[in-house]
From TrEMBL:
Cofactor mode of binding and number, as noted: Binds 1 zinc ion.
Enzyme Commission numbers on file: 3.1.-.-
Family: Belongs to the endoribonuclease YbeY family.
GO biological process, one term: rRNA processing
GO CC terms of this entry: cytoplasm
Record organism: Erythrobacter aureus
PANTHER family found in the cross-reference section: ENDORIBONUCLEASE YBEY, CHLOROPLASTIC
Cofactor(s) in the UniProt record: Zn(2+)
Record protein name field: Endoribonuclease YbeY
Length: 163
């Protein structure tokens, strides 16, 4: 059983975004079992660059757009200690910026759907307490989880061109 995912789509091109998000969640839960807790819920907003920019400015103090924002509501230790039974718990919120995602996918020469799946997985891992800022080891561990989850979706390693 997986967490409850509330999806809102506004300002994205037509597509099967909700289904993509559900598949990305399932793949992420297979590599990060902590988010498979049925008590958890998360909201995912597919929105405009302008909205993500405003959220980034208001909540993170960064006056610029970005591709994905994650707003975790549980510390990793609390998530790992969360029993399967009990009242609902909010894991956090995610927001994806359409224009930035489209531009990045085009620059990488990959399908928008594949890039969006990567960013959704990346966001879920942040909600689960993973990070890539503090150390190279953290970044490598998080990338390994992303690569494993993407492989479950049949999506190539987005970091494969590094070295």
């Amino acid at each position: 059983m997986e967490l409850e995912l509330d999806i809102d789509i506004d300002g994205w091109p037509s597509g099967e975004w909700a289904a993509l998000a559900e598949r990305a969640l399932s793949a992420t839960a297979q590599v990060e079992p902590a988010i498979a807790n049925p008590r958890l819920s998360t909201s995912l907003l597919f929105t405009s660059d302008e909205e993500v920019h405003a959220l980034n400015r208001e909540w993170r103090g960064k006056d610029k757009p970005t591709n994905v924002l994650s707003f975790p509501m549980l510390e990793r230790e609390d998530l790992l200690a969360l029993a399967q039974d009990g009242p609902p718990e909010m894991l956090g919120d995610l927001a994806l910026a359409s224009g930035t995602c489209e531009r990045e996918a085009a620059e990488k020469g990959i399908a928008l759907e594949d890039h969006a799946a990567h960013l959704i997985i990346h966001g879920f891992l942040h909600l689960a307490g993973h990070d890539h800022v503090e150390s190279d080891a953290q970044a490598e561990a998080m990338e390994a989880l992303e690569i494993a989850a993407l492989a479950k979706l049949g999506i190539a390693d987005p970091y494969g061109d590094r070295n």
